[in-house]
Amino acid sequence: MSSNRIPLPPPYRIKVVEPIPFLSPQQRREAITAAGYNPFNLRADQITVDLLSDSGTGASSAAQEAAAALGDESYAGARSFFRFRDAAAELTGYPYLLPVHQGRAGERVLFANLLRPGQICISNTHFDTTHANVEMAGAEARDLPCREAADLDSLEPFKGNIDLDALERTLAGPDGSRVGLVLMTITNNGLGAQPVSMANLEAVAAICRRYSTPFFLDAARFAENAWLVRQKEDGYQDLTPQQIATRAFELADGCLISLKKDGLTAIGGLIGLRDEELFGRCEANLIATEGFTTYGGLAGRDLERLAQGLREVVDPAYLSSRAEQTARFARMINEAGVDTVQPAGIHALYLNAGRLLPHLSPGEFPGHSLVCQLYLDGGIRSAELGSLYLGALDADHRVVTPAPFELVRLAIPRRVYTEEHFAYVAAVLGAIAKNPERIRGYRIASAPERLRHFKVRLEPLP
Ligand code: F0G
């Protein structure tokens, strides 16, 4: 196939555009200072290229907007729900499906009915809100990433996997009876957007069956994981991304999906279940806290966009061009002198800020310094994934135990930015990499107890 050699362009062209602002260096300095050096406090109209998140930030298609016009806003039994349910059932195969307004709502509803206080939830890596929702259910969130994940430069294909030996040891050991759930995050957002292999999922399913432990997928990026499986794992080359995703769902007892990613919509989520009794309990909770069974916090218009988005996202031409786009962006950044977690995943790149800024100790938050510099120099918004996010702090907000790595995530919204935007980001990074010693560290001025990174305020060190 000639397409193996010449990458095809994205299978869409741009129909509607939105202007982006360009602030002066002085305006950017004022903006980030007023934001307490926390990019979550910036206004979107102060940002030139926004790589904070790939969640809910994608572009809608003409077909999605046309479908939205047909949205049925009936309180119960809306046509739009059944279209959404059919698309979700075809993809996941689960008999019981509950819409929710976003992923974390699904986490709250499911964990309230599946986890008991004192239990343990095991994952390859919990996403931050997932971690928080496990704890809010009174349980412990325990990550067991595979060993290969610890080497940021290794080209191992499935660094998103769980450590199967550690999982088995935990289930067989003294904590085994307390494990209430095994939750596999595909792709592994907390660990470099690395994919999880089907072989790993099959092994997890077999272990969970042996210990009668519920096994769920946190499948926010189910299509991107399926694409990487198709590219990298033997035996999947002849299956479609949808078939691979469906096979992954088949292995589990249920799923949570934030549909703000691979649903290709601004809002939405899903709980998928096999167990009728658990469904009944979750449904009662959903009706009390999210909305009736046939809308779960979503408008008919959203359900229509989702029904269409779930079909568009598994298009091989779309997934191939998105994966290529990320791979090219990684090469531009690496050639500009900044290392990224290898190999490149699809929804985000993770910059190795610790290596770029060795003059800053973890307590001076090198990842955060790079986040601020990207904004100051280029109006680019990104997210720290280092000691500011994950480190253990003392009462004075000083780092006691640093994070294992000091990373910065550049998340890539779907169908939004062009090659020139990525070249611009790589050029800003290249200029930073030429003279990294000028970059100062930061200290925390104030921080909340839970989910620190969202509300923390900082100041530059003198
Ligand atoms: N699970 C994973 C793996 C996620 O990446 C996210 C969100 C959620 C659950 C929660 O879903 O936002 O719809 O409530 N991730 C976004 C991100 C916010 O930027 O990575 P939500």
TrEMBL record:
Residues recorded with modification N6-(pyridoxal phosphate)lysine: K261
Which protein are we looking at?
A: Tryptophanase
Q: Which family does it belong to?
A: Belongs to the beta-eliminating lyase family.
User: Which InterPro entries does the UniProt entry name for this protein?
Assistant: ArAA_b-elim_lyase/Thr_aldolase, Beta-eliminating_lyase, PyrdxlP-dep_Trfase, PyrdxlP-dep_Trfase_major, PyrdxlP-dep_Trfase_small
For this UniProt record, the keywords arranged alphabetically read as follows: Lyase, Pyridoxal phosphate
Q: Which first-to-last residue range defines the signal peptide? A: none
Q: Name one GO biological process term.
A: aromatic amino acid metabolic process
What does the record give as cofactor?
A: pyridoxal 5'-phosphate
On the tree of life, the source organism's domain of life is: Bacteria
- Pfam families from the UniProt entry: Beta_elim_lyase (PF01212)
Q: Which organism is it from?
A: Actinoplanes italicus
The chain positions of domain Aromatic amino acid beta-eliminating lyase/threonine aldolase read 50-427
Q: Which SUPFAM superfamilies match?
A: PLP-dependent transferases
GO MF terms listed in the record are: carbon-carbon lyase activity
